[in-house]
């Protein structure tokens, strides 16, 4: 059976939170109003401070700006965001850290609450084996509704995604790793026999069993 590393993006491979950075980028481009930008930023901040419980409905209040967008348009804007902003936020030791996993013949999958097009660019940049990220809903005309399709890839859903990937890709979870900046996710991972490591961006830990 294969071994794998399931790796978060925000505050793990990059410094900061991609969705807040994306909103800032859209605001500077005039896509998002100042009011919506400040409201959304406050929501994400309250999530991180655990003052508000992270929820699908609250995230959808932020994502309503994408209503009516074509997937290709969001992908193009996400590409610009990655090339102009996110690439500068990549933690200094990220590539070295990921290369250690590659050299030990581990498959590497990104699991992130960020939006799919952003996770796709990070996956391509590091040349990893795949990703699961938050997906936006499409209507009958293949336009975004501003709602989330399925669940936010966070907490228990993120652990379930790792388990699903392990079944799909024939991965031995007992010989795999879960890398995140979220202690609650690391505790959940341990319940399923996955070795968890806390990995703040810029000081990504060495891993050992």
With strands numbered from the N-terminus, the spatial order across the biggest sheet is 3-2-1-6-7
Examine the coordinates and then state which fold CATH places here, giving the name of the CATH topology of the largest domain.
Answer: Rossmann fold
The number of strands is 7
Just give the CATH class of the largest domain. Alpha Beta
- Kindly report the average pLDDT value: 87
**Integer tally of domains:** 2
CATH architecture of the largest domain: 3-Layer(aba) Sandwich
Continuous helix count: 8
- The arrangement of helices and strands along the chain is EHHHHHEHEEEHEHE
For the biggest sheet, the summary is:
5 strands, parallel
What's this entry about, in short?
The chain is of the alpha/beta class and 209 residues long. It has eight helices and seven strands; from the N terminus they run βαααααβαβββαβαβ. β4 and β5 form a beta hairpin.
Please tag this protein with its features.
five-stranded parallel β-sheet, two-stranded antiparallel sheet, 209 residues, globular, alpha/beta, 8 helices
């Amino acid at each position: 059976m294969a071994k794998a590393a399931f790796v978060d993006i925000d505050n793990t491979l990059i410094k900061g939170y991609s969705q807040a950075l994306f909103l800032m980028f859209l605001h500077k481009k005039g896509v998002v109003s100042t009011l919506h930008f400040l409201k959304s930023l406050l929501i994400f901040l309250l999530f991180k401070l655990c003052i508000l419980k992270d929820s699908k409905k609250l995230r959808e209040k932020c994502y309503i700006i994408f209503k009516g967008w074509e997937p290709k348009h969001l992908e193009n804007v996400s590409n610009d965001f990655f090339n102009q902003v996110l690439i500068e936020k990549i933690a200094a030791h990220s590539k070295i850290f990921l290369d250690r996993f590659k050299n030990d013949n581990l498959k590497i999958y990104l699991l992130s609450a960020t939006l799919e097009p952003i996770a796709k660019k990070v996956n391509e940049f590091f040349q990893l084996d795949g990703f699961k990220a938050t997906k936006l809903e499409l209507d009958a005309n293949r336009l975004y509704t501003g709602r989330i399709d399925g669940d936010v890839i966070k907490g228990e859903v993120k652990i379930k995604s790792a388990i699903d990937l392990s079944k799909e890709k024939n991965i031995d979870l007992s010989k795999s790793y879960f890398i995140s900046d979220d202690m609650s996710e690391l505790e959940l991972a341990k319940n399923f026999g996955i070795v968890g490591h806390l990995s703040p961006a810029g000081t990504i830990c060495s891993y050992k069993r």
